[in-house]
Design a protein that fits this description.
The chain has 193 residues and is of the alpha/beta class. It is built from 7 helices and 4 strands. It has a 4-stranded parallel β-sheet with strand order 2-1-3-4. Helix 4 links the parallel strand 3 and strand 4. The longest helix has 23 residues. The chain is globular and about 40 Å long. The C terminus is likely disordered.
């Protein structure tokens, strides 16, 4: 089974929101074929709930993270993940060796996938990740000044709302970049006017 791991620092603000938004988007697009999505922190505040402002901001976008409990990323998480999505460059740098080729910031991966010339339709998640890594290795610059999602910890609720809205947009683009556009429903040829 393929899986996606979303990583931030404490696993109480950005990554729980991104995990839930991405899961919803992937399940809407792929139904039972959607990859598993989980989140963790590089310095996870193990056992802590999501920040209350994250819970509110996520709920306003239709996802419930009230039951989330923070955890620290484990070697097992890394080993079983087809894709590791970092919320900021410092989180991506936490992974090296074999995991580096499947670790990207969210924004970096979206930009790489959107720059690929071949389409996503029919490709496995691992194939899309490998193609993005090859493009990155070929020198695709992306936008190195804008690779991270701001950490709203300690900020007012409006900052959490802004982060959640930003994550929602990037997760939607990621879903399309990984799996292509959803096919339009078949038409019957009948016109109902």
């Amino acid at each position: 089974m393929t899986s996606i791991l979303v990583v931030c620092t404490g696993n109480v603000c950005r990554s729980p929101i991104a995990e839930s938004l991405l899961r919803v988007a992937l399940e809407a697009r792929l139904a039972a074929e959607a990859p598993d999505v989980a989140s963790a922190g590089t310095m996870g505040w193990v056992g802590s709930g999501a920040d209350p402002s994250s819970v509110v901001a996520a709920a306003e976008l239709g996802v419930d993270i009230s039951g989330h409990r923070a955890r620290e990323v484990s070697d097992e998480d890394v080993a079983r993940s087809t894709l590791i999505l970092a919320m900021a460059p410092e989180h991506a740098r936490a992974f090296d060796g074999e995991a580096r080729g499947r670790t990207f910031t969210l924004k970096e991966l979206v930009r790489l996938l959107e720059a690929l010339t071949e389409g996503a339709s029919g490709q496995l998640l691992s194939e899309r990740v490998a193609a993005a890594d090859r493009l990155r290795a070929d020198g695709f610059a992306g936008d190195p000044r804008d690779e991270g999602i701001m950490d709203p910890l300690g900020m007012p609720l409006d900052a959490f709302r802004a982060v959640a809205a930003e994550l929602d947009g990037w997760c939607s683009r990621l879903t399309v970049g990984l799996f292509g556009h959803a096919e339009a429903p078949a038409t019957t040829g009948t016109s109902w006017s």
